[in-house]
Amino acid sequence: MSFLDTKGRIFDIQRYSIHDGAGIRTICFLKGCVLRCKWCCNPESQEYGIQQMLVRGRPKTIGRDVTVREVMETVEKDRIYYRRSGGGLTLSGGESLCQPLFARDLLRAAYETGIGTAMESMGCAPYENIEMLLPYLDHYLFDIKHMNGKKHKAFTGKSNELMLENVWRVASEGGTKLSIRVPVIPTFNDSPEEIRDIALFADKLPGVEDIYLLPYHRLGQDKYEGLGRVYEMPDILPPEPEHMQMLKKMVETVTGLRCQIGG
Description:
Strand order of the largest sheet: 5-1-2-6-7-8-9-10-11
Structural class: alpha/beta
Number of strands: 11
């Protein structure tokens, strides 16, 4: 069987994105996640199973099984835009590493045909699941949410030791561009001290040159009601732009990293 026939489960493909990597991108969202972040804006990604979610009062099926070949038919449609903009395919989720063989073969299919590849992930998986992807991965957008393991577990369901160990190993491997992304969540990690600690850790990672601060938003809140779930942070407001600028300036002051808000 060709690797193009590898099957996986996705819940969306988004074309013409300018986020999650350089240039114009097609983002493939994979089903399944091992974390349960209280602020998650894609709660429909968390369960691997196919679900029903109410969207504008109507039931919608979330999740479908596809082959690598079928995904690439969509990805290939925008090759001209990738070439002109430096874009390509990005894997997101959920957590792509929950479907490591499918993720690897998607990246391979793009990489071997000259399409740039990126993956947004928190690295919460056995390292061998990450290692098999690296030969086909141009840019790893690695989420680091907190340096305190207990607080990390309180807000996401798991501690952070494995993720921090894995990001060190990816950085030490070299060959894949590695960027750090931090979701800035009020009451969780939005203090200058907490962001500073993450930035100082990131600054020590071999080869890492940039860090992205992603401000919390409430765009996924209605999805919880559609899934029959309770959103656990209903009273949390997005950080003010002035606060984000203060955090950015602080990161640039204490590290040698390029810092960007959003992305």
